[in-house]
Structure formats: structure tokens, C-alpha cells
Amino acid sequence: MSLDFDVTIDSEEEEDPIEDSDTVANIQEVFRQKFFIDFQECATLKKKYITHAASSNDYSKIAIGIGNEMQVYDFTSTGLSKYIGKNEFGQFSHPVSGVKFFNNDPNLVMASTISGEIHMYDLRSFKKVFMFEDDTEILVKPVNCFDVNANDRLICAGTDELKNEVYLLFFDIRERRLMGGFFESHQEEITDVKFHPTDPDSLASGSTDGLINIFDCKQESEDDALLHSLNTCDSINKLKWHQDNKLSCITNTNDLHLYDIDSQDLLKKWERSEITESMKRKSVVDCNIIDCHNIGTEMMFVATSNYNKGECIRSIKFNEKSLDPLANITGNNQIIRASLYNEKDNVYLTFGEGAIISVWKEGMSSDNGTSSKQMKEESSVKKKMKKKANPY
């Protein structure tokens, strides 16, 4: 099912039609780092959203989920180069629900679809290596999200609700088989699963039922595997592991929670209004958290305002005590759906409803606030979007 731009709700139609703008006169005095577009890539000329994005651990490759398709790009300092595969590479009959690279091999990439399939590709041959699915029953278990553990041996997929049950499905990558599943720990659709970045047996799952469950995947039974169950009293959107076994949670109401998994304590909760205040913006209903990222031992999130086609993107550092302004990212012209952060090169990547991949680097602007390279790339993207032929 392709998504249409007309579905987007303008901020004027929201319940609180406040014209969003900055709350401080000089935003650069607050956000000391300033990022500009280094280059952009238009993923398609069709009206489709980029809904999912992932990078290889070395950031040499980027994968996106856009409608019924996964696209993969080589990522260098000079731009993005799309993989043009054969035999319908990355083409599916149903919408993509997640993309993920292997942790230890950037040439192996996977995409899940809502039809319950997880497709694994080898980029060296452009071939589909295998398709994982739960074929033990006639009923298809729609996959909402999935992840690969730290040693690339295990896949966990979270499903939508099916006949009043939801599932965490586990697949053995080496043996190419379904190992089994958990179906008692969540009561509503599972929205995110995240393996611990260094402990291959530790898994966090989140659901619209408000629960974050922590599992030890070495255990054979679900009762033994479930270590902790944290009630957020909200609907969960995204999870992220951080240093010292901290876990952040973005809710579907755009609140941010930070937990200490060892002690099972809620360290801090920030409501959407507090996130908006940290961004130095006026309209709460326009401001959204896109994703959380790591900067060394510190934590950061990317947030946007959807007002005026998403022109405002900002990043905020956070800990259990405070929200601290980090970067102002200027020149955006699409509603953002996903973000990545390359810590080594201090580069942000954003993906959104204009089907554009934007790469942002810190630097100086010209007098009109737009770098010459940025203007060149924006012009190039606009030219591409006017063409009727597919540029690829």
C-alpha cells in the first residue's frame, strides 16, 4: 500500500492551530552546532514515504524502506550510490515494516514486510539468500518490527495482533529455521524489538499495551526468559539501548522515558511539552521526537516540527537530569519519518515523506543561510522530481 502526500495533516488542521516558531530571538546562541545539507538523494518520483532506515555499522551502506520496496545505497563522503539489482531485488508484494544490516557483515541486509516475511539479501551477488517466515499455521502473522542480535545468529520479529494474540518470533539464522515464539508477555501489537548492542542474549520489546519487556533469550521457556516488565502507562513507539544498560523509550504521544534496566527504575520522563520547550518552539502539537541515538557515552535525540513542511530539525542531548540543546539542522523541506547519526563523522541523515534522503554536516553558511553546495543539491533534487522518467 503506497502512501500519498495528501494524507499529511497540515498544522492548521490540528487541534491547537498555533503558528509554530522559535521562542528565542537568536537560536544559534542556544544551539551552538549548526548543520546544513551536504547532499540529497531522491529515492523515487512516486508519492511514497521513506518510513524506515538503517545503516551498516561502518556506515558504508544505507538501507531504506519505501512503500513495497527496500533500497540500498553505498554511502561515501561524496554522495549516495544506489544498488541496482536484478531479479526484482528488494521488491515485495506488501509494505516494508523494517530494514536491518547484519552487525558484522555490511553486505548482508534484511527487510521485513507486513505479510510476515523477513527477506535476507547478499549485496555481493544481489541475490536473496533466504526468506524467514512462520509457516507453522495457515494464518499469517504480520511482522511490525524485527532485529538481529549482536553475533548475527538470531532474529526476533514482533507481530501485529492476530485473533487477540501477539507474538515474538525467533529465527536461527545459521540453521535457517523458526526456533519458536513468545506469546504471553504482550497483549497488543508489538511496535519495536531491540537486542542489546553487546549482549546477544538480551532483548527489549515494546508494545502499544504500554509494556517494555526485557528477556534473556538463553532461556527455553517464556516464563524463565522474562526478566523484567516495565509499565510505561503509554503506547510505545521506539526503543534504544544506551551506555550502562540504560534504555530510552519514545511513546506514541511523543513523550520520552529513560530507564535503568539493572535497577528497573524510571530515571526520568519528559512530556511532549517539555520536548517542545527544549527545542525552543511554540507549538506542542507540531513537535515530534524522531529517534534516539548515542554520542559516545552520552545520549541524544532528533526532534522536528512538522510546521511549514518540517523546516525545523534539532537534536537534544539528554540524561536523567536535563535536556541540553545540541544542534540546529537547517534547510529541511519534508516531514521527517526516520533519522540516523554517524558518530564517527558527526553526520546526521534524515528520511521522510518527500522520499528524500538528506545528509547533514556541520559547517558555515553563506549570508542567505544556505551553502552553495546545499543550493546546488536542492536544485538537483527539484530537477529530478520534475522529470517523468525514473532517474535510476
UniProtKB/TrEMBL annotation:
Domain of life: Eukaryota
Protein name, as recorded: WD repeat-containing protein 89
PROSITE patterns assigned: WD_REPEATS_2, WD_REPEATS_REGION
InterPro entries for the chain: WD40/YVTN_repeat-like_dom_sf, WD40_repeat_dom_sf, WD40_rpt, WDR89
PANTHER family membership: WD REPEAT-CONTAINING PROTEIN 89 (PTHR22889:SF0)
Biased composition (Basic residues): 382-392
SUPFAM superfamilies to which the protein is assigned, alphabetical: WD40 repeat-like (SSF50978)
Record keywords, A-Z: Repeat, WD repeat
UniProt cross-references to SMART domains, sorted A to Z: WD40
Start-end of each WD repeat: 183-216
Gene3D superfamilies: YVTN repeat-like/Quinoprotein amine dehydrogenase (2.130.10.10)
Chain spans, region Disordered: 365-392
